[in-house]
């Protein structure tokens, strides 16, 4: 990370760091941002919610790159999000079949599948730390849209595209990988109790299940 930041300082090249998993990287990025360097960075739900001392041995469902680190590193990631050093949380959703995830940690496919529950895993961790739903929305929607130039979304406001989920943040549920929509019933969050039950989802103003467009949810043609 230090090498990359040195190169950014030398070249002025706009740089995005993906999958930050360690506190050391957060420290380097914090200093880089304080110096005004054009860097942005993200971490992922699995680095914020899992830790290497509490996952079962040989749990290939959580094999990913970089690997899951300990609670000390996890705390540093949350601090980095809270103070804006880390701009966002991205899913890094990487589904794989049971065949690909079979074997040992050394041989199994590296990648975590958690698209359907990642937002709620982060929400659960945030609420436990006294952070809010609004913080999670900023990391996983507003900042992400801004970062990649999707200027027609990323906020709830007239003229923007209405991609919305209506959730009950205090209602809890247990993740059952076999009940998720994913074709492969493997999930890094399997068995976790999470906050956030989704009651309705809108894609560009249309109810994702019924396809019915709600009156004023989308203004932009
Ligand atoms: Zn990745």
Q: Which strand-content bin applies to the residues?
A: 15-25%
CATH fold-level label = TIM Barrel
Name the CATH class: Alpha Beta
DSSP helix count? Answer: 7
Work out the count of structural domains: 1
Low-confidence stretches: 216-221
Overview of the molecule:
The chain has 221 residues and is an alpha/beta fold. It has a single domain, classed as Metal-dependent hydrolases (TIM Barrel, Alpha-Beta Barrel), CATH 3.20.20.140. 31% of the residues lie in helices and 15% in strands. Strands 1-2-3 form a three-stranded parallel sheet. The longest helix is centred in the middle third of the chain and has 15 residues. The protein starts with a helix and ends in a 14-residue tail after the last strand. The C terminus is likely disordered. The structure holds zinc ion. Zinc ion binds next to loops. One of its GO terms (molecular function) is allantoinase activity.
